[in-house]
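#random but structural
TW: two for the price of one
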Amino acid sequence: MDHEQGAAPPPDPDEPDRVDRVEAAWRRERPDIDVSSVGIVTRIWRIGRHLDTHRQKRLEMFGTDRVTLDVLAMLRRAGAPYRRTAGELQRSALITSGGMSQRLERLEAAGLVTRHIHAEDRRKVDVELTPAGIALVDEVVGDLMLQESKLLDGLDAVERERLRVLLKKLLGRFE
């Protein structure tokens, strides 16, 4: 997906691609059903795979992974003092409390977060980014945003906004 030196130019959107050929084959074989979703759903699925692979490779360059970035980014987006309860993190990440505890143990051992018993309720644990955690998440997010913006270079500002709105509308049906 990177369009760096030596990479092939982007394909002509008016030329049939693999997905168009699959859709056409289904139209030929099953003219009795509407197969128009193939051209949309298959492309979304394939783009998702490419984006996932790209992000995974970028994260590996920083010696981190999606799980680590998710937790660090939730804390960073909370604003100073970059602190949330473990329960809030768990609910946002949609994982079990045991899974969150394991993540937090690893992050604390790596010096990226600290955990503190909540001042008013000793059953709660506050999680706070350390300076090393802030530095890592800022570097990784900065890199990801730059690289992922480059992946959209084939779209102008109007097309990007139109795509953003359409994807938001479609995603809303699932969430």
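TW: number two ↓
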Amino acid sequence: MAGATTQPAGLNGEGSGPRAASVILNVIDVLRCFTVEEPLQGVTEIATRVGLHKSSVSRILATLEREAIVERDDASRKYRLGLGLIAVAGPLLANLDVRRVSLPMLRDLSAETGETIALVVWDGSEAVTVEQVPSAQNIKHTTPLGTRYTSALNASVQVFLAELSADRARELINGGVAAPPAESRVSVEELLSRLSRTRERGFAVNYGDTYPEEVGISAPVRDHRGETVAGVLLAAPLYRVKRERVEELGRSCASTAAQISARLGAPPT
């Protein structure tokens, strides 16, 4: 075990380097003692398992308890994992769940449209690609997983900004978080108008706005609370998507996003 030879002063050890690293590893070792088979753990049991002195384990558990990462069982007085851990892992769990649920429907949409279909999530300031089904055609638009979209001209960003109030969206755009490139010459008011249009029709469109040879169409995926947690993104070469086909592809994206939302327990819209 990582903590077999080091006894930290506590979770809040100061400094950096080997000592600070050992404190973090000890905390991780302690948390890994809690399993589905053995959800309740006492100080002595944990200390024996991780090779730390009981006083060190007690200090770690006391700090974790203050942060609600662990909690005390009233009957046994042993510890178990607390709801604070869910709060920490919640965004990751939500993203993993929507990715797993979405993949079959993303494949269906790619087969139906002949284009690349991706799933994006919002990290507070950027849309991030977490899944992708490439087009089967020789000429296609694809990006590596983890690609980040930052401009409000991106359809994948618009689906998230459209969920915000006009004041909040304006604040993000003016603050540079989702600002379009200066050379685009698209005003903030025009961007806000596009967000309103996105809410009305249920999908966002980037028709050569970020790159003249690319089209992006995105629709929001909602969870059981009705909140947008992801976006279904269609990406294609512009020459293959005539203006008159945008509405059709947008409806297809919105339909797939609605199916995924239903699987996540979203209320009907």
